[in-house]
Amino acid sequence: MAEEPRAASPSEERRPSGGGDRSGGDRPRFGGGGGGRGPGGPPREGGRKFFRRKKVCKFCVEKIENINYKDYRMLGQFVAESGKIVPRRLTGVCSPHQHRVAAAIKQARNIALLPFAGRAS
Ligand SMILES: [Zn+2]
């Protein structure tokens, strides 16, 4: 009787992908190596690194069926500077084509047309 069911208080802060209160643990992150990406990194705004206009698959538009691994110029568009394959959500390539692109990139890497990783600095 005395219990009042409290609805979720609207004043509760919601944090983006928080999951636990780690307040006070605000130390700079010294990761082992490389990228500035970590799990639960700082929320950045306006991440428009890559051009992103229409999500349309380049290969579907141009009707390219066979993606040739020797065509490193074309494949180079899907490899980031770091040597990684750019994910589909950034390029807009459709799933089956991305799959072929990825396969072609891997083939091209094996014959040293494309880098496995970015150049060592
Ligand atoms: Zn496609």
Fill in the keyword field for this structure:
mainly alpha; 30s Ribosomal Protein S18; binds zinc ion; elongated; 121 residues; 4 helices
Secondary structure topology:
Elements: H1 58-62, H2 72-76, H3 88-91, H4 95-110
Bound molecules: zinc ion.
Zinc ion is lined by residues 57, 59-60, 93-94, 97.
Task: Report what the structure shows.
25% of the residues lie in helices and 0% in strands. The protein has a domain of 53 residues: Irregular (30s Ribosomal Protein S18), CATH 4.10.640. With 121 residues, the chain is mostly helical. It binds zinc ion.
Which geometry do the CA atoms define? Answer: elongated
Instruction: State the low-pLDDT regions, or none.
Output: none
User: What is the beta-strand fraction?
Assistant: under 5%
CATH topology category name of one domain: 30s Ribosomal Protein S18
Fraction of residues in helix:
10-25%
How would you sum up this structure in a few lines?
With 121 residues, the protein is an all-alpha fold.
